[in-house]
Write the structure tokens for this entry.
Amino acid sequence: MTKTFAYEFVADTVGVKCLDGAGNPCKGWINQGGFVFWFDANGYMVVGEHKLANNDYLFNDGSAAYAPIGALISDGFVVNEIYANNIHYAEGYNTRFDNGRIVVLIHGLTGSIQDTMTLAKYYMTYGYKVIVPELVAHGSSTEIANVPQIIIRSAMAIESIINSYIDETHPTVDICGTSLGGMVGTCIVKNLKEKISRLALLISTYDFSELSDEIFFNTYYQGRVEEKLERTSIMQLFRSINPNNDPDLFKYTKVYLVQSSTDNIIPFITTPRKDIEFHASSAKGHNLRDVDYFDSFKFLLAGAKKYVPTKEEKEKFNFVKVDGVQNNTLTAAVIISQIGNSVNRTVEASAETVAETTVATVAETTEAIVESSPLTKGPGLKENGEALTQEEVEQIQESMEATGEYTTARAILAY
């Protein structure tokens, strides 16, 4: 069964509405581009502070540069933007739960802090304190630098930030780096050694000696190519800073590396180091599958303290377990909300695809995000802001199964 889902954001003199394919206003929670928005009983997007289901929420009013207007930016989370050590970074943490761990999430070449904020929310849900730095020559940085300089200068700045966070409560940090971000992370491991507990390298490498794609042979300014460079001198710089020259590089650090053999940017390592956990992704090109990201999440999360909800929280929030997703139906945590992949765009999807992208992959790889998350609940499931009861959720499930109406369903996962 294939259905068409069309969604559109429309502004009028009152505010911004989200309309479905029939032109009707959408109400409640809207998941759009990795961010979550709330539309009131009249279908208008809210901004600023709001109380829903007896819980305080903060929606971006334009003050948070890392998220679009109206996006949920605080649900027990605190996110601060900081300028220190000549680098801009975001610091985030969960006010309800601290698992004693810090993770540094580093974006790739031409990327930004916003690229990693959705992932940061998953880590904060599990009690991580999260640091999301902006690479040198990216975003607000005024530097112009070639790629080896970006790696070394960014690593030095992030090392200073890490050292400022390490204390008795957080004696080590974890790092997750995507593409160039992983290369920066590897250099940090080389310098900080036992201070880095775990390193996840996503479509990245610890060996700089075989880099050949043209993106590595330019200078960059604010994440854009500034000037093409002669390859020989840059390659010499890469080899001189290559962390793989150190036989004890990962002596104190557990490492997870995932690469694709069809990656046209990062060379595929055919004989990985014996001191790392290596995974070959079936993704095509310089990409990963969702399961690759979640497997790296599980790797970093291993051994962390788990959140145990109190009796009061269990009563206040609708804690349910997402598991057993083997078919087209969404499991227990279901709310009425639209699934839109982009603004003013029609999306073709089958019922199976909708179910898979909203629940199945997460459920398979994280084992009940919903159950262990302090943020999992059903806020605003009714127009008055009250949460659905379990019985009401099950009634919705049965109705959806009978009618095949997947157009307005999504799973409640940790934001």
